Amino acid sequence: MVFLEGEDAPRLLQICGKRWTIEPPEPPQSPARSRIVFIATRQPVVTPFDPWRHFAPALAG
Question: Going by C-beta distance under 8 Å and a sequence separation of 6 or more, which residues neighbour residue 2?
């Protein structure tokens, strides 16, 4: 869950590979806090993950 500036409720942020979604959570809502969980593997041939590149389109509005 993340809290975005200008929003009155948290959003559920999910990222899997190059895909991501940000949407209203299913009830019940969690307490007023944000938590980010990264699950990854170390592979030398994979391009490093850049979270800001993924979030930029959502934050540009």
Answer: 10, 11, 13, 22, 34, 36
